[in-house]
Sequence to fold (183 residues):
Amino acid sequence: MSRVGNNPVVIPQGVEVLIEGQKLTTKGPKGSLDLELRPEVKVEVNEGHVVVKRKKEDKLSKSVHGLTRALINNMVTGVTQGWVKNLEMVGVGYRAQGGGDTLTLNVGYSHPVTVKAPEGINFAVTENTKISVAGIDRNLVGQIAANIRAVKPPEVYKGKGIRYQGEYVRRKAGKAGKAVGAK
Fold:
């Protein structure tokens, strides 16, 4: 029994959810998102709620049940509030420039790294070291943030690199070195 899948998704004021065959469309003040529904589940929209039900009781249907409900909930949240991932840069001389749809990163390489935002994603840079990735599609926001982090992931000896805001980087002890006077 899926605890997540059995909860109905509440449709807030100003959001419209339409189902056409196996395609679910969510429209809201921030934009529109589409989802291709799996054939193992049945989705119904009634009285301000979206309810996801299984067609069969096999393992695949049970696993897709909660997933589909979570994806629909993320779509509804995205078109109303949007999603944001914050990154921070740690390191001497590390900085970010730009905003909107282009981001330029200086992270210790011999050249600056330029990241282009796909449609629906916006960048914002504050304090030259803090980056915000915003959009309505949760998966896309997370993937773009992960791509930016992959340009220079935090290293374990000094902690330098690009990390998610609030991410804890476990540090290693450096080389112990040779004892003084020992031969």
User: Anything to note?
Assistant: The domain at 83-164 is CATH 3.90.930.12 (Outer Surface Protein A; domain 3). Residues 158 and 171 are 7 Å apart (CA to CA). DSSP finds three helices and 13 strands in the chain.
